[in-house]
Amino acid sequence: MAQGTFVQALRKEAALSGTFMKGRSLMLNGAVLSIEDSGSRFSKNVTVEGSVRGSRGDLYKTHVALDMDEHEVIDYDCDCPAAYRYPGMCKHAIATALAYLDASGAEPVEGLRTPVRTFAAQPKQSARPAPTTPTVNPNFPFPAPVPTSPSLMAALSDLSNARMDELASMRRKLAGAVGPDAPKAALEPSLVPYYNPLFADRFSWALEFRIRCGSVSYVVKDIDGMADAYVRGGTFSYGKKLTFAHTPEAFEDVSTKLLSLVLTTVAYLDDITSSRSASYDFARSGFVAERQLPLSEHSIVYVLDLLRGQTISFEPAWSRGTTTHRTYDVAVELSPQGEDEASAKRPPLLAAKIAPAAGGSYDLRLPADAYCFASGDVAYLVDTRRARRTDVAFAQHAAPFLSRLLPCRTPVHIAADQVGEFCRMALPILRDYTDLTAPAALDTVAPEPSFAMAIGVDDGLVTCKITVTYGDWSADLFSLGAPGSPFEEQRPGVPPRDEVAEFRVMDTAALYFDFYEGGLALESTRARACSAC
Fold this sequence. Notes:
This protein is α+β, with helices and mostly antiparallel strands. The protein has 15 helices and 24 strands. It has helices at residues 5-13, 19-28, 81-85, 91-104, 150-174, 223-232, 253-280, 282-285, 297-306, 392-405, 419-425, 427-433, 477-480, 499-510, 524-532; strands spanning 32-39, 45-53, 59-67, 72-78, 186-194, 204-213, 216-219, 235-239, 242-245, 293-295, 311-314, 328-332, 351-356, 362-365, 371-375, 378-382, 386-389, 412-414, 435-437, 449-458, 461-470, 473-476, 514-516, 519-523.
């Protein structure tokens, strides 16, 4: 950090021309009795609470918030009369900020003579041995004082913070910063790739936010602090020109719903952090990236539903590999007017092409800039221009498969020995839900199976023989062995088998017949008993 950057910021924020020097004088003369800082896991913002002795001996409580990255003063407060009378920082708030910057080593203040009682330091070794502590209570016959319980101290601190928030909110309203005619704040989300440090080989997604109120806008640098202020209804500052009480009435309707999602996600991440920090030290390594809120796929779909008819800033995952990150303003489309989303099946939303490759293999090509996000019966296809909500059938049947392949920046290769399985399992999905161009020969690679059952009597046993047919090829179902098992017969010319269909027929036959010497059979007496029933 460059020397003097915070000092310059404090001079600019000072209420009067001489306020900064008065605050510095208070700090140098030991008027700052104590300070306590509390940083956020989600950013490098620091909040400092201080206790300052005024020039007339009165004790004042101060509050200062500093952005250690941008070297800015983002919020301040004090319960002295001057803080209420003048706009800008009072001398007590400036003294608190200087004391923290000096004690933490972030920006030492020259000429400090009286240490602030905040950071524990090792006691200096005395040249003479310390006198022996008397064994008798020096306060005898009066008992030694017992300190206040830590739990009560914490509770009192919370009450004090709440009162400070109420005071700050009242001042803002009286000053006209918050009023019924004031413009409502709007959160503008951006969907960006999020790389979890625990899983370097894969990425997920996160939201970043910009907050806008009238003509003023800032990037949200402390999501945790914003969420905490919204829960308490307290004030929160995003920068020098935007500080207000975070109540539902202060935000637009969509933004209040986004904040509800933020609160739920932050609470969940807090639980994860507290339960695993002993093993992974998430609090220090940054389980939640700065200025980012990790999201599940379900939450992404929820956010897109909220923003239908609006735009969202979108950064494709592939852009993270470029020298400059590319972001796009994506329009979240509304459904066609009058269309019933629950039942209407829409035209294909994707183009797909299958082309022959060497050695009997094939290559599948899908859009290179499209992403698929699905949750239950809802799915979205998002590219660099628009986000489209699919129909229910697409979400249920195609989205789970396509979300694995999109975006397809290089062709998906299908090896020759996997062509049959691909044609049986994936080709129908591509034909039904994409605008597919494919060789006609693929239609004959994996014909649908048909089954024939013949029942006879052999040496007192009722036998059952099941024949499976794939096109022109047929065989005894049980002589082939179960698909994928060690007993599967590897004879030449066997077409790709439909495992699900074969197992379904086997399971049904096993309800009525017993396995007997490689086939199915039933004793005739048992058969008569069954027929009598």
